[in-house]
Amino acid sequence: MELYQLKTFVAIAQEGNLTRAAERVFTSAPAVSAQLKALEDELGVRLFERSPRGMQLTEAGERLLAEAQRTLLSAGRMRAAAEALRGQAQGVVRFGTVVDPVSLRLGEVLVRLAERHPQVSLQLRQGLSHETIAAVQRGELDAAYALSDQTAIEGLDLRRLTAVDLAVALPPALAEAHPALDLDQLTRLPWIGTPASCVMRSHVERLFAAAGREQRMAQTADSEGALRSMVASGLGAALLRLDQAEQAQRRGELVVWPGWRSHTWLCWVAPADRASAAGEALRSVVFEVWSGAPGDA
Fold it and tell me: What is the CATH number for 174?
């Protein structure tokens, strides 16, 4: 039995889906399926049943999940103890994040980093994703969270952490005036755009292309906070992260249009060819947090 098999088991249990579990443990769905089969063969029990709702834990799987989590936690503590014996990483890591962060689990990262590597500290810098990635490339940042559709960037270690859903947000007055809004009508409304290098821009272009219309933006904003404020002020429609749009909708500031969804990715970005001990400590903690189980990612 290997620890990576237990990590895979936990990831499938938490996600209920092989593809999403594969993304969490940074491998492919066929590899996850093979790891699960090997674990079930070794244990001699069936851990999951497939259903229309995804992967469902069997009774045996329910009972063994807690054991797997305890085993991984013990392994993580053993690694931490070994690091203490070797000498702890120390130093400052210059870490970039998006300006208006999604659920970055940054608090969890900071807590675990402090517990495992008390002599490593983060120097946080917020900015737009394309600017943050460029700062990592220039060596101004040691690592970053960034929103990106790319699967690889030359010279960088880019790993997808989680999908980020996107949606169209409308000013309440516009939504009320067009209760049965279709795609053609949507693309005729005033729109608020983002800089050409922003990841949101390409998704808006695809939306307009689906309507057979050229994208025209009356105004632009360089942050999601500004976008939300401009939509709430009635200046036009805009593309926002779904979690942020739904939060603003609950406050009555805007309306989420139900006719379209897309997604991008929250990614880990760091130089591929250089990393300090402090940077490696941060990387290990970030991947551990996003894998959903203790241990190295």
Answer: 3.40.190.10
CA 71 and chain centroid, separation: 26
- The two structure tokens encoding residue 47: 């851990």
Total number of domains constituting the chain: 3
Residues 6+ apart with CB under 8 A from 276: 89, 91, 93, 142
Token pair, residue 195, equals 């800089």
93 within 8 A of 123, measured Cβ to Cβ? yes
3-state secondary structure of 151: coil
Model confidence, pTM: 0.65
In single-letter form, the type of residue at position 264 comes to T
Map residue 36 onto helix, strand or coil. helix
The reply to whether 99 and 242 lie within a common domain is: no
* Model confidence pLDDT, tens digit, residues 60-117: 999 999 899 889 888 877 776 676 566 567 788 999 998 766 678 888 888 888 888 8
Sign of CA dihedral 286, 290, 291, 294: positive
